[in-house]
Amino acid sequence: MDLETRKYHFIQELFSVDSESIIDTLERVLKREKEQLQEISAEHKAELESRLESYKENPNDVLDWEDVKGGW
Length: 72
Known about the structure:
This protein has a domain at 19-58. The protein is elongated, with a radius of gyration of 22 Å. It has helices at 3-15, 20-37, 42-57, 65-70. By secondary structure, it is mainly alpha-helical. The chain has four helices and no strands.
């Protein structure tokens, strides 16, 4: 059975579900799976590594959140 057919059958099954808890569970599983599939791009990983190294080299060179928030 191909993926499109499986999706169609799954959707048909969803229409027959009367339990909200089952729908809640399915939504949680789907959300978790989608989150696990998301990947950070190489550019973002490099930026994160750069910022982490900068912080390690100068841990006191930070901004206070209240100061930053007050500037908005």
